[in-house]
Amino acid sequence: MIIKAFVIGHPINHSRSPLIHGNWLAQHAIAGSYEAIDVAPADLPAFFQRLRSGEFAGGNVTIPHKEAVFALCDSIDPLATTIGAVNTLVVNNGQVHGTNTDYLGFLGNLDAGAPGWDRAGRAAIVMGAGGAARAILVALKSRNIPVHLLNRTRSTADKLAREIGGAITAGALGDFNALAPGAGLVVNTTSIGMHGTRFKDLALDHLPDDALVTDIVYVPLVTPLLADARARGLRTVDGLGMLLHQAVPGFSAWFGVRPDVTPALRATIEAALEH
Ligand code: NAP
Questions:
Q1: pLDDT in tens, 214-249
Q2: Which of 72, 115, 121, 263 is such that its CA lies 20 to 30 A from the CA of 181?
Q3: What are 18-25's contacts with CB under 8 Å, separation 24+?
Q4: Active-site residue 200, yes or no?
């Protein structure tokens, strides 16, 4: 029997997930499929009926369904509730379980790209307080790393810091330079960096020499922030690995094999990003 998985979204043709999972299916010679399915918001309940019938082992959820599926799942991982989005569904005995693997993707990417990054004993500066920041804050909290959460709209940072709880202090982007000397990690979760846009007046030279800089924007792969950090001699990890690592738990759950994020897989997806 062929094990089937999917990614649903609307539109869906931009998704890189079929390429990632298709590579792993071929590599492990699994009798399975992973297809992109365009599901309009009005058709989501009917799609969940298909899921309960056992047609699929599970799949991914992307824009605009990541919040709407909450009401349709039979159970939800508490961390997905904290993050406020479901990106992975697993079907078992006609029941649909919703989870969020973005925080695992973020951690897996840094663990692979900068081993020991979480042992610096210093705070992280997280820039941006949008949807993606929620998963990053949950990830850093799970490793007991204190965070300065800086955002253009200060009130959004205040609200998010309260919602996630723990050792998070909120501030404005302009606070970066004063906080930099005490930071072990800098994470960009804003959309700055897409299409070559850059932060103004970030003094990366105020960071300690062993600080790590990571960006979750991955188009372009080397954002201006990462290029500046490299020029300053700092370690960097790009955002493509987060996308690849977030796919690992879903594939494991549906197909029963834990896949690796290999340089060959990265190269394949990198080549696809250029088109
Ligand atoms: P979002 O919810 O729209 O949040 C956008 C954030 O960027 C907000 O904090 C916003 O600040 C800030 N921002 C936008 N324009 C800005 C500007 N000109 N100056 C300063 N701040 C600005 O978006 P998201 O879903 O969090 O996604 C953010 C980025 O992460 C996207 O580029 C997305 O592609 C990427 N991402 C990557 C991965 C991965 O796997 N690597 C996963 C998820 C997302 P305000 O609150 O002030 O508006």
A1: 999 999 999 999 999 999 999 999 999 999 999 999
A2: 115
A3: 19/268, 19/269, 19/272, 20/243, 20/244, 20/247, 20/265, 20/269, 21/247, 21/250, 21/251, 23/265, 23/268, 24/251, 24/255, 24/257, 24/259, 24/265, 25/255
A4: no
